[in-house]
Specification:
Shape: elongated
Number of strands: 3
Order of helices and strands: HEEEH
Strand content: 15-25%
Structural class: alpha+beta
Strand order of the largest sheet: 1-2-3
Length: about 100
């Protein structure tokens, strides 16, 4: 439900908010995003990884045109690096 609400909210923003980067003609044909991951301590109910409770990673993409945030993926294993997460994602998630 949260993912669907986020998708609807992002679309609403795209439909109603002006694009601050539209003043730059060289950027007109590009979608612009910034990405980052965030790790936080494991919850009591999280399953152990390699026999120990591990931090949980969430990776996000920020649309620089509309300033909307989308969840991309959960980290796998011990502090998976951002680049590794991007490589394992299906290309369609970026379209």
């Amino acid at each position: 439900m949260a993912a669907e609400l986020n998708q609807r909210l992002c679309q609403r923003v795209v439909d109603t908010v002006s694009d601050p980067l539209s003043a730059y003609a060289d950027l007109a044909d590009f979608d612009l995003y910034a990405g980052d991951g965030h790790w936080h301590g494991a919850a009591a109910h999280d399953a152990p990884i390699d026999g120990a409770k591990r931090a949980v990673g969430h990776f996000y993409a920020l649309d620089l045109r509309r300033h909307t945030l989308r969840h991309l993926a959960l980290g796998i294993g011990k502090k998976e690096h951002d680049r590794h997460v991007l490589k394992r994602l299906d290309i369609d998630i970026f379209r």
